[in-house]
Amino acid sequence: MKLIKMVQRPAVLSVNLAFLTIASLGGSSEDVDLPKFIENVPNITVTVGRDALLPCTVEQLKGFKVAWVQVDTQTILTIHKQVITRNPRIALLHNDHRTWHLQVKNVRESDRGWYMCQVNTDPMRSRQGYVDVVVPPDIIDRESSGDLTVREGQDVTLTCRAKGHPPPRIIWRREDNQNIILDSSKTGHGRGEGDDVAAVSGNGGAIGSSRRRVGLLGSAGGALGVDGSAAGGLSVASSGGVGVGRSVRVVEGEKLILKKVSRLQMGSYLCIASNSIPPSISKRAHLSVQFPPMTWVPQQLEGAYLGQDLTIECRTEAFPRSINYWTNTRGDMIVAGDRYEPVVAETSYKVFMKLRIRRVERQDFGTFRCVAKNSLGETDGAIRIYEIESPKAHVNGGLEDKEELPEGEELPGDPPVTPPPHKKEKTKYKNFLHPSGMNDITDQQHLGKPYGSKGSDHSGPGTRYGERPAFSLPADEGKSAARDTCPVDILLGTMTSLAIHMAFITPP
């Protein structure tokens, strides 16, 4: 409809202006060669605050005159080389009696409309073009919501209004990129009646009652998601779950309605206005949800032994922010010192509390409490510390050596100790290393025990059972005599003992 209106030309006004210009400027309609327009005056679009230039080129002008007229306001702007209007932003650029360009500096919204370039022929000849002044979006602060604080369970409505040309689109999203929970008391998926939500498909077509495309146009004409990712449109992914409620990625419309708000809905919400004319603009509204403190203790029972270093934990949630501290077994507030070190870490409305106890003493066995207080209430969590036996000390990854006890005996109250594998093997073959009988002779030879008197044989009176008889050789006898004198059974015994010794001493 707007385009049809734009192409309609005010015939009566053109005739009147023609007579006016002919009467004032003169000129002959009897000339054979009449002026000709080389091209039409184009329709242009210009951003507010910039300059607009409307070209008009005429050939064979001769004695005729050219004038510029603002059609909508019926205002004559220029005649021939003179600027008639008192508007200082209007200028005429001409050259060689052929080009007559109209320049509008620092364009305003009031400059939007039709402009005519005409020649005072009979009948009048003219060309006209439309100047569209576009305006980037701007949020009206006085009509939009600011920071808001409510009690948990109340309904909240955030409003955002913007102006611009063309009229801007408005979408809502969370500043932390989390989903917007529309109603924390309901669960499920999909849209309900009255929800101003448009689910946009990947190709930019809106699904639902709203058919407008949601997104910011990029340089290539494709829509960009609010997070800056290239896409056909904003993905409005709906999700829901028990205790969370229906949630969406973005919401389109001037109003964002949140039902029965909870602490999960606390945060900053961005109202983003865009109309394809850069830059887009946004306004931030922070929603604070007040609720009394809550406490959660991960471990309510902690075992410790005397002298141990122990850390206990407690978590609280509250808004406004709570005052957090620990109390000892006597109920006294704990102050940081040599043995106690309270540590507090805060994130939004959540508080993580830790208490480090150095060198646990007997007075520490009992109940410690973490306390949280704010203007809406008070709560605490209890942690009981009980005594346990001290674990055995470790040295180099193994147990400390105890005093040697007779085989098979252990200290009272100690668990049985399993010997290492190589000691098991050594014990297993202990009897084979030192058997009774012939091997004892070899053993005593290694120990350097004295043998019988010089010159006595193995059956002599100076030889005891189990001892190796001496068989010293005279100095003047050769090695052959020594071999003849060495008993065969002694040699066999020595060889057998060595073989057994080599087989069982070496670990498998």
Top CATH class of the largest domain? Mainly Beta
User: What is the architecture of the largest domain at the second tier of CATH?
Assistant: Sandwich
Number of strands: 34
Number of helices: 7
- State the helicity in percent bands: 10-25%
Strand content: 35-45%
Global outline: rod-shaped
CATH topology-level fold name of the largest domain: Immunoglobulin-like
Catalogue the unreliable spans: 1-31, 187-244, 399-406, 411-415, 425-488
**Cα Rg:** 52 Å
Alpha-carbon distance between the termini? 101 Å
- On the 0 to 100 scale, the average pLDDT is 73
By secondary-structure content and strand pairing, the structural class works out as mainly beta
Short description:
This protein has 508 residues and is mostly beta strands. Helices cover 13% and strands 35% of the residues.
Please provide a written account of the structure:
There is one protein chain. The N terminus is likely disordered. This protein has 4 domains: 133 residues, Sandwich (Immunoglobulin-like), CATH 2.60.40; 151 residues, Immunoglobulins (Immunoglobulin-like, Sandwich); 91 residues, Sandwich (Immunoglobulin-like); 76 residues, no CATH class. Strands 12, 15, 22, 24, 25, 27, 29 and 30 form an 8-stranded mixed β-sheet that branches. Helix 5 crosses helix 7. A hairpin with a 2-residue loop joins strand 29 and strand 30. By secondary structure, it is mainly β. It contains 7 helices and 34 strands.
Helix and strand arrangement:
Layout: H1 2-7, H2 11-25, E1 36-37, E2 44-47, E3 52-54, E4 58-59, E5 66-70, E6 75-79, E7 82-83, E8 90-95, E9 99-104, E10 113-119, E11 125-139, E12 148-151, E13 156-159, E14 162-165, E15 169-174, E16 180-183, E17 199-200, E18 206-207, E19 216-217, E20 223-224, E21 246-248, E22 251-252, E23 255-258, E24 267-274, E25 281-296, E26 301-304, E27 310-319, E28 323-327, E29 340-347, E30 350-357, E31 366-374, E32 377-387, E33 394-395, E34 398-399, H3 421-428, H4 430-433, H5 438-447, H6 479-485, H7 488-505
Parallel strand pairs: 2-11, 12-25, 26-32
Antiparallel strand pairs: 1-4, 3-9, 5-6, 5-10, 6-7, 8-9, 10-11, 11-14, 13-23, 15-22, 15-24, 16-21, 17-18, 19-20, 24-25, 25-27, 27-30, 28-31, 29-30, 31-32, 33-34
Helix pairs in contact: 5-7
